[in-house]
Amino acid sequence: MRSLRAAPASFLAPPAPPLLLPPSTPAPRGVFSAAAAAAAAAANQTHAWCPSPRRVVRLRRPARAGAAPSSAASVEDAKKDVLVALSQIIDPDFGTDIVSCGFVKDLEISEALEEVSFRLELTTPACPVKDMFEEKANEVVAALPWVKKVNVTMSAQPAQPAFAGELPEGLQKISNIIAVSSCKGGVGKSTVAVNLAYTLAGMGARVGIFDADVFGPSLPTMVSPENRLLVMNPESRTILPTEYLGVKMVSFGFAGQGRAIMRGPMVSGVINQLLTTTEWGELDYLVIDMPPGTGDIHLTLCQVAPLTAAVIVTTPQKLAFIDVAKGVRMFSKLKVPCVAVVENMCYFDADGKRFYPFGQGSGAQVVQQFGIPHLFDLPIRPTLSASGDTGIPEVVADPQGDVAKTFQNLGVCVVQQCAKIRQQVSTAVSYDRSIRAIRVKVPDSDEEFLLHPATVRRNDRSAQSVDEWTGEQKVQYGDIPEDIEPEEIRPMGNYAVSITWPDGFSQIAPYDQLEMLERLVDVPRAKTAVISSS
């Protein structure tokens, strides 16, 4: 994994001049590179811990007789010692210590300077390296010469989306929304979605499943909840999800109407209502079992729900690859990163040999052609197929089996990739008041560049700034003061940020448009016309 390291202050560039200037003034560079800028503070959204707090206490052995006593001079010095010790613990994915990540909370030192108490507040309760964090946190603090007792409390942040828009109330407490898609029926997409959901729940996360297939819902067959009908709250007029083994779930099959026979626009409305008016509560992961195809329902889901990532399911046949490729391209256009490929029904083992009845290479072809980083193979197993018919997911029926281990690896991958995506999105665009410049580091890019705030504000392409019919610029150069500063910058899904300015204007700035401003830096301009994003 690539490490992020803070650059010394001498590496910071001076304030950026405006990109656009009056006609009488030569146009200097308005954007400049800052690849060596400080990035340690950018890693404040990585892994987290168990959803319910638990306390770990470690007693330090008494000092050896005759050993010279060592103690901190004051409480403040003691806190510094503890933070320095904890900074030895490095997040394995980002190469950044947990102190810089902001995980250490409520640090307290006893008056006698012998007992240390603190809380580690992380962001996902399904952290795959939580045991390592727990062990190291106790070990490094207990190693301080003056510490006799260590109290560590583990907790997780409240579930919240990395999204700035006006989300429906039902989605406002969901941290990550994962789409499981194949764009082709019969490849085991629902099997993967259900087993992935229960794997994440087994890792300690709060999980929900949304069955988005109205024409052929699979969830009522694959799980066996006691309450098989959705109930509406008469006061709030919201849907109460059913629940099975701690996982919340909603499906049209639980609406008491079986499979739907309706036209496309009606289906989109039903999907929208089921997803957005459900009382999901606080969830770390909502797994959406996408229907086959790339039509209205898929576009509706991508527009209504801020998808964090997608998992692609395929089979070894060439025909499956052709359909899956369409889905990957759809997610790419919608700025939804595909984090893993699951190739189902790959092989079976018999007589000490492995057989591939449907051929090989479809999953690997998806990985190679589209750059998706992880590939997981699922075997042809009678128990895996039977579990979908009995109502008990395979990872629940046989949690120690080979299939469960594959899903465990898939779950770890999803947790890690979602943490990376949230961290990248949350820190992609920020305002540095010390140099009065907007820092931009687009996700999946190694380069960081700076933009002058006035440049960004003047190049807004919304209807409030540009006439939609004539293309005439409504906001003129002189309307925006040179010293304007953004009041707030928040992510808008995986594709843009929302910037709030002092005049109350809320600007949606897509990453593509910000990159366009950076690329046009060397283009000579004799006029003050605002740069077009087209």
TrEMBL record:
<comment type="similarity">
    <text>Belongs to the Mrp/NBP35 ATP-binding proteins family.</text>
</comment>
<feature type="domain" description="Gamma-butyrobetaine hydroxylase-like N-terminal">
    <location>
        <begin position="444"/>
        <end position="507"/>
    </location>
</feature>
<dbReference type="InterPro" id="IPR010376">
    <property type="entry name" value="GBBH-like_N"/>
</dbReference>
<keyword id="KW-0067">ATP-binding</keyword>
<dbReference type="GO" id="GO:0140663">
    <property type="term" value="F:ATP-dependent FeS chaperone activity"/>
</dbReference>
<dbReference type="GO" id="GO:0016226">
    <property type="term" value="P:iron-sulfur cluster assembly"/>
</dbReference>
<dbReference type="InterPro" id="IPR000808">
    <property type="entry name" value="Mrp-like_CS"/>
</dbReference>
<keyword id="KW-0408">Iron</keyword>
<keyword id="KW-0150">Chloroplast</keyword>
<dbReference type="Pfam" id="PF06155">
    <property type="entry name" value="GBBH-like_N"/>
</dbReference>
<dbReference type="Pfam" id="PF10609">
    <property type="entry name" value="ParA"/>
</dbReference>
<dbReference type="InterPro" id="IPR038492">
    <property type="entry name" value="GBBH-like_N_sf"/>
</dbReference>
<dbReference type="InterPro" id="IPR044304">
    <property type="entry name" value="NUBPL-like"/>
</dbReference>
<dbReference type="GO" id="GO:0009570">
    <property type="term" value="C:chloroplast stroma"/>
</dbReference>
<keyword id="KW-0934">Plastid</keyword>
<protein>
    <recommendedName>
        <fullName>Fe-S cluster assembly factor HCF101, chloroplastic</fullName>
    </recommendedName>
</protein>
<dbReference type="InterPro" id="IPR002744">
    <property type="entry name" value="MIP18-like"/>
</dbReference>
<keyword id="KW-0479">Metal-binding</keyword>
<dbReference type="InterPro" id="IPR019591">
    <property type="entry name" value="Mrp/NBP35_ATP-bd"/>
</dbReference>
<dbReference type="InterPro" id="IPR027417">
    <property type="entry name" value="P-loop_NTPase"/>
</dbReference>
<dbReference type="InterPro" id="IPR034904">
    <property type="entry name" value="FSCA_dom_sf"/>
</dbReference>
<dbReference type="GO" id="GO:0046872">
    <property type="term" value="F:metal ion binding"/>
</dbReference>
<dbReference type="Pfam" id="PF01883">
    <property type="entry name" value="FeS_assembly_P"/>
</dbReference>
<dbReference type="GO" id="GO:0005524">
    <property type="term" value="F:ATP binding"/>
</dbReference>
<keyword id="KW-0809">Transit peptide</keyword>
<keyword id="KW-0547">Nucleotide-binding</keyword>
<dbReference type="GO" id="GO:0051539">
    <property type="term" value="F:4 iron, 4 sulfur cluster binding"/>
</dbReference>
<keyword id="KW-0411">Iron-sulfur</keyword>
<feature type="domain" description="MIP18 family-like">
    <location>
        <begin position="79"/>
        <end position="152"/>
    </location>
</feature>
<dbReference type="InterPro" id="IPR033756">
    <property type="entry name" value="YlxH/NBP35"/>
</dbReference>
